[in-house]
Specification:
The protein is α+β, with helices and mostly antiparallel strands. It has a single domain, classed as Gcn5-related N-acetyltransferase (GNAT) (Aminopeptidase, 3-Layer(aba) Sandwich). The strands form two sheets. A four-stranded antiparallel beta sheet has the order 1-2-3-4, with helices on both faces. The longest helix has 15 residues.
Length: 164
């Protein structure tokens, strides 16, 4: 899958981003520590219209393969936070998530961000550690419906501060 193009998302990609998110999250059903209520709440991403609005302030990138969009990531430069990295189940294990995170790290550095944080699902901690992120501690994500999910807060120092 190395042939997938990593590119900035277009407003027309919003519907497919919603579908990738739902498929990736629902693919975790039955894996600890996720219960059905958490999976269902987590799979309900914002609407395509909401995503199009967020594209004005956040950097959305997609992995575009020969058979369409396969993955996406969202960098929030204002909050110095990597908000999302999701790969469709049919494309997992092909390095797309890694490529999207590397793209986000490069974009963050270019934007002058010296410290990037994220909330990781417990099952993805080792993935992010392999990309240079360190565990800060437990955190909690509260979905719009009120359901809560335990996460792991992680960070990476990107350098580029004064004197570097």
């Amino acid at each position: 899958m190395t042939g997938a193009l990593i590119r900035e998302a277009l407003p027309a990609d919003a519907e497919r981003i919603v579908a990738i998110h739902a498929a990736a999250v629902r693919g975790l059903r039955g894996r600890d520590p996720y219960g059905d209520a958490e999976i269902e709440a987590w799979s309900q991403i914002r609407s395509p219209d909401d995503l199009r609005e967020l594209m004005a302030t956040r950097r959305f990138v997609v992995a575009d393969g020969s058979d369409g969009l396969l993955a996406y990531a969202v960098l929030d430069p204002e909050a110095a936070t990597l908000r999302s990295v999701y790969v469709h189940p049919r494309a997992q294990g092909r390095g797309l998530g890694r490529r999207l995170v590397q793209d986000a790290l490069a974009a963050a550095q270019k934007a002058g961000i010296t410290h990037l944080e994220l909330d990781a699902a417990p099952t993805s901690v080792s993935f992010y550690e392999g990309l240079g992120f360190a565990v800060l501690g437990d955190s909690e994500h509260r979905f719009r419906c009120g359901t809560r999910m335990t996460c792991v807060r992680m960070a990476q120092d990107l350098g580029g501060g004064p004197g570097e």
